[in-house]
Write a structure and sequence with these properties.
The protein is 35% helix and 0% strand. The chain is mainly alpha-helical. It starts with 22 loop residues before the first helix and ends in a 19-residue tail after the last helix.
């Protein structure tokens, strides 16, 4: 089955499954749905700068992994 539309053609944004809306009603429905989507997207994104907790700031020295092969004497190194 081949599609007669070019590959770069825009896909439909909405599809009417029942009824025959006027162009004004269809435009209003698209605006409302677009606004709801934009609002949901804005609310769902994380802030760009995350605040570091006091634990993260004080745990800087704990970031290196332990050398388990050194045994107990490896701590006095």
């Amino acid at each position: 089955m081949s599609d007669s539309r070019p590959a770069d053609a825009a896909q439909p944004v909405a599809r009417v499954v029942r009824g025959t809306p006027t162009p004004e009603e269809l435009a209003a429905a698209i605006v409302v749905a677009s606004e709801a989507y934009a609002r949901e997207t804005a609310d769902a994104t994380a802030p760009d700068t995350a605040v570091r907790s006091r634990w993260e700031l004080s745990a800087r020295g704990l970031r290196a992994p332990l050398n388990r092969d050194a045994g107990w004497r490896g701590f006095t190194g």
